[in-house]
Design goal:
The protein is α/β, with parallel strands linked by helices. Helix content is 23%, strand content 33%. Helix 1 runs parallel beside helix 9 and helix 7 runs parallel beside helix 8.
Length: 457
């Protein structure tokens, strides 16, 4: 087996997040972006130390698990909803197995209570935020606006019927796309650093229907966006546009950020409601992308935290303070720590909005902030970014020796990597479960309750 060779085989299983296993003789090959049971053609693109990786070229035969038709027109070319041809029940079964296998391996099959997987209340049209890219579907093709082709950083497919978002968002996308098509406006080319159109960022409150529209461009060209604003406001939407922004971004990197924000209409924030609390969300504020599944997630977290009466709770990697505020109603004090200053400002504003006076939010790196905090927590909530807890921050967190730690993981492999450190510090995994916030995709959230054992040193 050599690099560049092409083989055919059947995906036997898929490990988290999307690593399919194909056996060629006695050689295991990892091929991403497939579904268990698919017969595929693939090319070997890595071969080292007895390990082989392949790139999926073609699905030759559908999997027996693919029991429904695609929901949108750009499947399977789009890299977004890989699993939409599987029933939702089968998606949940696969994700649950993937996470359990990771946890069992990390714990060396130590006993813990597994509480299953919670599905999302909405299987489609659940996202309250979406970043669409401008580009073309092939070199020098017409302007497109949507999502990248699977495995491509350049080709963009127009997502006019994307089923991850509310129909209001696809109507807005089509309106913006058609407007710039007629103007023959250029899109930003990442290699040459030339062009105008970069992204369309949409945010929509699931519970309020309030919508923010952000057209993100460079400063290399200038167009009158007043007609676009009027066209957007005239759209027949179920919700209501409360803000339209033109964001100037001349950064060389392909990230959504602002050098200058021009408000074309309304305001730069919207409201969303979770578990009876109201949240003001601005353009770049982090907020769980599936509002209704976030309610399920936070209900589990609140249950895992247990009784916090008269206790001090540390919410580390607190984002806009959603979890902290949910815990505050039954705690003595909650201290949130978050490195993104805008998120901290939003957390403070939301705590005031909800009349919560026992929440305090600190802007800074968890690694450094913990050195300066004089309070000692009784309970710790961890909701780190995808890569997990910083290796230098973990010993500081463990040194508090609290009885309960709730770890929320958006990447189960990071949780599995961190678990042995908790075990060595005298904790055991009491119980865990999954919450699926990302139906049709490879992602899933895991919630773990870690308890300090009496026998630890």
């Amino acid at each position: 087996m050599k690099k560049g060779e092409i083989y055919e085989g059947t995906i036997e299983k898929v490990d988290f997040p999307n690593k399919g296993t194909v056996m060629i003789g006695d050689q295991k090959v990892t091929v991403k972006n497939g579904i268990p049971g698919q017969k595929i053609r693939f090319m070997i693109n890595k071969k080292r130390s007895g390990r082989a990786e392949g790139r999926l070229l073609e699905v030759l035969e559908k999997s027996p698990q693919e029991t429904r038709d695609p929901a949108c027109s750009i499947f399977p070319e789009c890299g977004g909803c890989m699993y939409q041809t599987m029933s939702y029940e089968k998606q949940l079964e696969m994700k649950e197995r993937q996470v359990r296998e990771l946890l069992d391996a990390a714990l060396e099959n130590a006993d813990y209570s597994w509480e299953g997987i919670h599905g999302s209340p909405m299987e489609f049209r659940y996202r309250n935020k979406m970043e669409f890219s401008f580009g073309d579907a092939y070199k020098d093709g017409p302007l497109t606006l949507g999502l990248h082709k699977k495995g491509s950083t350049y080709d963009v497919l127009t997502a006019s019927d994307c089923k991850l978002v509310h129909e209001d968002m696809t109507k807005i996308l089509s309106c913006v796309h058609e407007y710039f098509l007629k103007l023959n406006a250029s899109y930003y080319k990442k290699m040459q650093h030339t062009g105008y159109l970069r992204h369309l960022l949409l945010r929509r409150g699931v519970t309020t229907g309030e919508i923010l529209v952000h057209v993100i461009t460079t400063s290399q060209e200038e167009y009158n966006l007043e007609p676009l604003k009027n066209q957007l406001l005239a759209l027949p939407l179920e919700g209501k546009i409360v803000g339209i922004m033109h964001i100037i971004n001349d950064s060389l990197s392909d990230v959504v950020q602002s050098d200058e924000t021009r408000i074309l209409y309304g305001q730069d924030y919207f409201y969303e409601t979770l578990l009876g609390l109201r949240f003001k969300i601005s353009t770049f504020s982090f907020f769980q992308p599936n509002s209704l599944a976030a309610e399920v997630l936070y209900s589990v977290v609140r249950q895992y935290i247990g009784d916090t009466k008269d206790k001090v709770v540390f919410d580390l990697y607190s984002g806009t303070g959603t979890i902290a505020q949910l815990a505050a109603s039954v705690a003595d004090e909650v201290i949130g720590v978050e490195i993104v200053e805008e998120a901290v400002e939003a957390a403070r504003e939301n705590a005031a909005l909800n009349n919560l006076k026992n929440c305090r939010f600190i802007a800074g790196d968890v690694l450094k902030v913990l050195d300066d905090l004089t309070q000692k927590p009784d309970v710790i909530i961890l909701d780190p970014p995808r890569d997990g807890i910083h290796p230098k921050a973990l010993p500081k967190i463990l040194s508090y020796g609290v009885d309960h730690i709730v770890y929320i993981s958006c990447k189960a492999t990071s949780l599995a990597r961190d678990l042995p450190a908790f075990l060595e510090a005298g904790y055991r995994l009491e119980k865990a479960c999954c919450v699926d916030q990302f139906c049709q995709t490879v992602h899933v959230e895991t919630v773990a309750l870690l308890k300090r054992t009496l026998t630890s040193e």
